[in-house]
Amino acid sequence: MAVAGDSICVSRQFLAKNQSAMLLNHFFGVSVRLPRSPPHLAKFKLTRSVGIRPTMRVGVEEERRVFHSSRLLEGTLGFDVVSEAELKEKGFLGMRKTKLVCTIGPACCSFQELERLAMRGMNVARLNMCHNTREWHWNVIRNIKRLNEEKGFCISVMIDIEGSQMHMVDHGVASSIKAEDGSIWLFTTQKFKGSRPFTVQANYEGFSEGINVGDELVVDGGMTSFEVIEKVDNDLRCRCTDPGLLLPRAKLSFWRNGKLVKKNFGIPTLSTKDWDDIDFGISEGVDFIAMSFVKDANVIMNLKNHLATKSSDFIKVLAKIESLESLENLEDIIQASDGIMVARGDLGVEIPLEQIPSVQEKITQVCRQLNKPVIVASQLLESMVEYPTPTRAEVADVSEAVRQYVDALMLSGESAVGSYGEKALSVLQMASSRMELRSLEENRHSLISEYPLGVSLPDRVAEQICNRAVEMANNLAVDAIFVYTKHGNMASLLSRNRPNPPIFAFTNENCTRKALNLWWGVFPLGVELSVDMEDNIGKTFNLMKTRGMVEEGDVVLIVSDVVPTCSTHSVFQSIQVRSIN
Ligand SMILES: Nc1ncnc2c1ncn2[C@@H]1O[C@H](COP(=O)(O)OP(=O)(O)O)[C@@H](O)[C@H]1O
Ligand SMILES: C=C(OP(=O)(O)O)C(=O)O
């Protein structure tokens, strides 16, 4: 490992065409200065400083494409105002790395309400297409775009597609209906408007097929339970055995002898409405589409093909893991998707609740292995839908997810309909910052090393470079990692190693910037990049310095491609350590 004043540069040259890799060259000579990090982390002490001295000039043979984004002006740095303020206030190591997703609903859909969520750190806004009208969603997306354009936020938009689920049709009553112990209810597929006493409409024609008298009908994973006492044609007459609330569109499941009766087989994963919602998302240029009740990898691939035919393959597809079938096909689904949501609400309808913590941990671990971001969702701070403080157990649950290094945490009803959405977001922010700091202080990478990454991804060279880069960054206690990226791949591979310093990902692709919002510890910055990497590095150093985000003496580790030279036609991926001067 390098010592003070040494040349610190690992570079790999590989032929861009066939991707076969061979270690060929070491080139830049670089020296670094003492980092600004806290003393206990500054293991890396240096005594002298030398300027950047390339031993080989990187030339460009031909005019190559300079990637443009309409919003990126020459000399500007698109950085989320909230992350910028956090960096200035708390320093590199104080930046929150766990990302926050908020479900947008009636309680937080105005421009001002969304702005308040953005100020408190919302990275991604989730729109659940199950609820409300398309026009309502359109207005929310407009507000978010305005916030990004006018106020300097970088909020990504996710639409969540309903998928195949068996649920109650909206019963026409504003909130919930109480089912009393012993009351008799009719569950029907007959269509009618408004509400009828003791009658519940089910959305799926075949909902009573294969159901026997004596089976248990569970609403919303246990909110209320019934026993089937009679079959009347396709309808079911049921007695309430466990009283509770029936919420609009509550989910229905059947149980026999303590086991789930699988009923989703007959329903196509995507309905006509879902396809319309997907096309709406495409036309609105959303950043993520989350698919509910994914059964296997095929449905993900179909959607990706659809996006590709509409030239919208920049939209990332997230698979929600919320059924037994999705658990059975977990690895294939994760492999096929661009990210995962552990949808604990519906998962808890299909598997015993006590299995949820271990399933969450397993999914998180597989996602990390396969380099896909993972969101933990549902009931994180459920009590805050009604109350201004969370329970201790809720805070412990959130902290445990952060300790597992999940990429993102999601609010559902807490932000969508709750009275304390902003407060709930602050709780997530504080709990995650606290646990991240604790992990950092104790250098608790034991969890990470429990599940060694190995060499598992198709691009083994990039994987190894990023693994080693993070090892170097941690050992040298650099202040930050800079990565220059078009599609975000290298940034994601760095994030996968959960480094101590933040990862600043410079990109000229707006869609990459928005996609990286979901990755742990990655802070995407929009900047006009050229083919000259030296120029890019110099430019971003200057921009960051001018904005007061870095200062003289800060040490950064840079991971970048070095573009083809006149003689080689090949691309170098390099790791460099430089000081700001
Ligand atoms: N766009 C919306 N319009 C109205 N209510 C919404 C909207 N989005 C979410 N909600 C409300 O917030 C609750 C939580 O939302 P969500 O996380 O999407 O969960 P779910 O649909 O599984 O209940 C919903 O039950 C619903 O009452
Ligand atoms: C996030 C979830 O999905 P939905 O809100 O669509 O029920 C869940 O079930 O946990």
Explain what you see:
It is a single chain. By secondary structure, this protein is of the alpha/beta class. The chain folds into three domains: 205 residues, Pyruvate kinase, C-terminal domain (Pyruvate Kinase, Chain: A, domain 1, 3-Layer(aba) Sandwich), CATH 3.40.1380.20; 233 residues, Alpha-Beta Barrel (TIM Barrel); 85 residues, Beta Barrel (M1 Pyruvate Kinase, Domain 3). Helix 5 packs parallel to helix 7, helix 10 packs across helix 12 and helix 14 crosses helix 15. The radius of gyration is 26 Å and the shape is elongated. Bound molecules: adenosine-5'-diphosphate and phosphoenolpyruvate. Adenosine-5'-diphosphate binds next to helix 11. Adenosine-5'-diphosphate (ADP) binds next to helix 11.
